[in-house]
Automatic annotation (TrEMBL):
<keyword id="KW-0732">Signal</keyword>
<protein>
    <recommendedName>
        <fullName>Secreted protein</fullName>
    </recommendedName>
</protein>
<feature type="signal peptide">
    <location>
        <begin position="1"/>
        <end position="19"/>
    </location>
</feature>
Amino acid sequence: MKSWSIFLSFLFCTTLACAACAALAPQSDDSPSSQPASEKPVYNGSVPIASLSPDEADLIKNLQAKNNAYQDVKGLVTAKGWRPLVCDQCKENVVGGDYEEVCSTNPNSPACKICDSLPELNSCSGDGYCLMQFHSGNSKLILKVGTYGDYRDAPNLMVTGWGFYTKASD
């Protein structure tokens, strides 16, 4: 129960950080926004699968059947055509506000390289929780996957939760 509470707190804080990043980030018209200004949950365990498209429902059923290994979930998601949702603020979210200085003096730091290694990475906390995001070309959905573990050892990251979100109508 404690790990669930920690994940929800992390997800809430990360969502707030993402909303703040979206307000500051320039948006391009040719790609989906990596930081939607406002999002609403579409499926987080409480919305009926029947309200989603057949492809989305199929993905949810497959995600529910998977174990908690992030590499397995990532493989399933990418095999279904979902792509990493690159966050322009990843280094700032992972390394900190002074990431340019930190990464210029220590460019081989794992924290400075991880956003390139895991393009779906949005942010990580100091205690091992990370948020990964994917988008589908066939819908406006964003899949957010919470993980726990040492991001430098991506094959051993464990999934702590996931949910589908869509940008709220403007």
